Every structure is written in structure tokens, then in C-alpha cells.
Amino acid sequence: MDYPSYPAGNDLYLQHHYLLVDRLRTGAWAAVAGVAASVPVMVWWAVGDVSTTPRASIPDYLAGPYHLGATPGRVALLAAATVLVAGLVDLVRRQFRREFGWTGWFFVGLIAAAGALGAFALRGVTAGVGGANIGGGMLAFVGPVLIGGLASVAGLTVALGLPALLALGIAAGAGLAVPQRPVSLSSG
């Protein structure tokens, strides 16, 4: 059987293993890693210091804040913004060339959400307050579970693919099963 439109021709191995996939994944993974690394930095910067005590008083900390000066913070922000824009532009270009699919966007969204949640939780945990940092304690307790859940679903997206996750009901939210056939609301 001849496959004129497929670059592998009649080679049975190449018909089932497209050689560009390995090369393309490397570039796409670099862009995904850039987006995943830059989103937490930008969220950390956007949230800012959430301390609730006046400057004159001595705040209580659940965990001491990480002190970063204004200049290194701005450099980190500009670097993260540049990497984020470059990564998103590369992924959109790959989407138009059909080298990056919607499963990849779902993965990027989950990883970016996990990073954003981690950056927000870091700001909450390191906030200076008068008394007990109840919000920081809640973020320290619940944050890792949510981040782990997002990362797990992202890993399953890569391992199983988005259609398999939708069929299992994992990506549909709250463990709800996606119906396999249309459901009739009328009796009979």
C-alpha cells in the first residue's frame, strides 16, 4: 500500500513513528518550562507584600520573608516577563503549525496554575501580621495538596492524554463522570 502524502512512504517503522515528534517535543518542552518558571515569578511580584501590620510595629511571621531588593526584583520580573512572552509566542506558533495540541495547552495551564498558587501561598505564608498568621497556616496546609493535585493531573495529561482524562472524569472536575452517550430527558 502506498502512502503518498505521508513522509514515511512504505517504511512500516516510520509510518508509526514520526521522527519529527522527538525533535519537536524538545523545543515545545523548553517553551513549556519557560512558561512554568516565569508564571510564579510574575505572580509573586504582582501579589507583593501582604503584611497587615503597620511599619512601626514588629510583625509576627509564620515563616520569615525572603528579602529581595528592588533592583534584583525588577530584573527577575523583566526576565520572567520576557521568558513568558517568548514561550507563549513559541507555543502559539507551534499550535498554528499543528506541532502543539490542546492537550499541551491543558498541561501548560495546569502547571502555570500550580506555580501561581505556589507563589501566592509563599506571599501569604511570609506575610507579617499582628498575632497568628491564620491565612498563612491555611495556605501552608492546603497549598501543597492543591499544587500536588494540579501537578498530578498535569502528569496524567502527559501520560494518558486529555481525551482519556475527560473520559475518566478527572479533568471534568470533582470526579464527575463524563457521559459516554447522550442522555434522554424524556421518558420512553
What descriptive keywords fit this protein?
single chain, 188 residues, mainly alpha, 2 strands
Give an overview in words.
The protein has six helices and two strands. Helix content is 63%, strand content 2%. The protein has one domain.
In round numbers, the mean pLDDT is: 76
Q: Percent helix among the residues?
A: 55-70%
* Helical/strand content category: mainly alpha
Number of helices: 6
Strand content: under 5%
Note poorly predicted spans: 1-24, 174-185
Tell me how many strands there are.
Answer: 2
Main sheet characteristics: 2 strands, antiparallel
Give the SSE string.
HHEHHEHH
Instruction: Give the C-alpha Rg.
Output: 23 Å
| Count of individual domains | 1
Placed side by side, the strands forming the largest sheet appear as: 1-2
Inertia-based shape: flat
Intertermini distance: 48 Å
Topology:
Blueprint: H1 12-16, H2 20-47, E1 60-61, H3 70-96, H4 102-125, E2 128-129, H5 134-160, H6 162-168
Antiparallel strand pairs: 1-2
Helix pairs in contact: 2-3, 2-4, 4-5, 5-6
